[in-house]
Amino acid sequence: MNSVQSLVQPHLLAQAGFASVVALTFAGALIAVFPRNILYNILGLIVSLTGVAGLFVYLGSPFIALMQLLIYVGAICISIIFAIMLSRPLHLSVPKRRLPKVGLAAGVGVAVFIMLAGIISRTPWQPAVSRSSDWSVTTLGHYLLTRYDLVFEAISLVLLVAILGAIVISGYARRRPS
Amino acid sequence: MNSLYTYLFIAALLFSLGIFGVFQRRSLIGMLIAIELMLNAASINFMAFNRFLAPDPIVGQIYTLFIMGIAAAEAAIALSIIVALFRRLRSINIERAQELRG
Question: How far apart are CA B86 and CA A143, in angstroms?
Answer without folding.
Answer: 43
